Amino acid sequence: MALLGGLIKNKEERIEKKTEKGKDAIKMKDWNGALKYFNGLIDKGNATPDIYVLRQMVLMAMDYDSPKILNDSIDLFRKNKDLTVEYGAHTVKVSQLLYECELRRDDETLSSKEDSVEVGEAFIRLGQKYMDLEYPNLILNDVFKEEKMSPSMLGNYIQGEGYSTIAESIKYESPKMAAERMISARQFYTECNFEDDVKRCDEFIENASKSGKCWFCNREETGLFMRLWPMPTLLSKENYAKEGERMPDNDSNKNVYACSGCRFVFYNQYQDCLKESKQYTDGKVQDLADWTASRLDNLQSQINALDRRIDSLRR
Ligand SMILES: [Zn+2]
C-alpha cells in the first residue's frame, strides 16, 4: 500500500509540475512551450478543466484574429464558465471572458454585413451591451493586446458606428434625416475621442445641408453626394453664374451639378458606351491574336524547311 501511495503521489507531483511549467511558459509568452505542457497533460488524460481553458487562451494569443479560434473558444468557455483561471499576471473569470468573446463575434458578424438600417440598429444595441459592463478594462484587450480600453469607450465607438451606418443607409432618400443620425454618431465619437470620425461626421453633416439646382433639369435639391452630384466641366464659374444660381454655395470648382435622376441617365449612357467599346477592343485583341498565330505558323514552317535543307547538305 505504501508503494502504491508513493506512485500516486509521484504522478500527482508530475502533473502539478507540468501544470506549473505550462503556466510559467505563459508568463514568458512562450506559447509553443505552454502548448507542449498542456497538450502533454491533455493527451494523457491528466488535464483538469482549467488546463483546457488556459490552452485555448494560448491559442487565442497566438492567432487573435482567427474566426475559427474565436468560435472554438466560445464553445469551450461555455462549458467552463464557472471557472476562474490564472493566466500570466491576470486572474480571469471565464464567464466574463466568454461574454466579451460573444460580443466580439457579434461585432465581427455585423461588420461583415452591408450597411443597412437594421445593421445600424444592431450596432447600437451591441454598443449598449458594452456600456453595461461593470468593470474598468476590457479583458480581451487587457489580456491579449496589453492595452487598457474601457467598456464605455468601445461602447461609445460602436454606437457611433451604428448611427453612422444608419445615416449612410438613408442618405440617398433623406439627407435631412441622415444628417440627424450623423449628429448622434458625432456625439458618440466625441465621447470616445475618435477625432477622424468626428471630422467625417462634420463633413457629412455639412454636405447634407448643401443645396443647388440641377444644371440639366433645374430641379432644386439638397444633399451633396446624396441627391446632388458634382460633374466636371470646362465652363468657368462666371459662365454659369450668368445662367442663374445653379451651384451649391461657396463652391469654386469647375463643376456643374446634376440631380440623382439626371445623373442616372448619364450613368446608363456611360455603361452603354463602355459595353460597346469593350466589344470593339475585344474584337481587336482577337484579330491581333489570330494574326500573331498565323505569323508564328509561317515562321515555324520556314524553320522546318531550313532544318531539312541543312540535313540534306550534311548528307
Ligand atoms: Zn436633374
Fraction of residues in H or I helices: 55-70%
Give the biggest beta sheet: 2 strands, antiparallel
Q: What is the domain tally?
A: 3
DSSP E strands, number: 6
The largest sheet has its strands arranged as 1-2
The shape, in one word, is: flat
Mean pLDDT figure: 91
Distance between the termini: 100 Å
Helix/strand/pairing category: mainly alpha
Hetero groups: zinc ion
Using only C-alpha atoms, the radius of gyration works out to 33 Å
Number of helices: 12
Give the arrangement of secondary structure elements.
Blueprint: H1 2-27, H2 31-43, H3 49-62, H4 67-79, E1 84-87, E2 90-93, H5 94-111, H6 117-131, H7 139-144, H8 151-170, H9 175-191, H10 195-209, E3 211-213, E4 220-222, E5 228-232, H11 237-241, E6 255-259, H12 260-314
Helix pairs in contact: 1-2, 2-3, 3-4, 4-5, 5-6, 6-8, 8-9, 9-10
Bound molecules: zinc ion (ZN).
Structure in words:
It is a single chain. The protein has 315 residues and is mainly α. It has 3 domains: 16-102, no CATH class; 112-209, no CATH class; 211-287, no CATH class. 69% of the residues lie in helices and 8% in strands. Strands 1-2 form a two-stranded antiparallel ribbon. It has a two-stranded antiparallel ribbon with strand order 3-4. β1 (84-87) and β2 form a beta hairpin. α1 (2-27) runs antiparallel to α2 (31-43) and α8 (151-170) packs antiparallel against α9 (175-191). The termini are far apart. The model has no long low-confidence stretch (mean pLDDT 91). Residues 214, 216-217, 219, 258-259, 261-262 line the site of zinc ion.
